[in-house]
Each structure stands twice: as C-alpha cells, then as structure tokens.
Amino acid sequence: MYEKLYFFLFNRITDALIALKDGRSLDAIRILSSAQSEAEEKFISSKT
Fold it and tell me: Does pTM top 0.85 for this prediction?
C-alpha cells in the first residue's frame, strides 16, 4: 500500500514542480491540494 501511495504522491509532486517551473503557481497549489486529499482517501480506504 505504501509503495502505491509513494508513487502516486511522487508523480503529483513532480507535476506540481513542473507547474511551478512554468510559472503556474495556482495550478501547483491545486495539484498538491488534490494529491493530499486523494492520498488521504486512499490511505483511509485501505484500512477498512
């Protein structure tokens, strides 16, 4: 489970870094915020 979450978050962080590099800070914030929520949902659902 942790491996899947790691790769999910790693890829989303990479997307956010690219957005920042391109000057799209609001996109980066949205990407990180949604990644945080999605990872939390995935983690919680894996425990039930």
Answer: yes
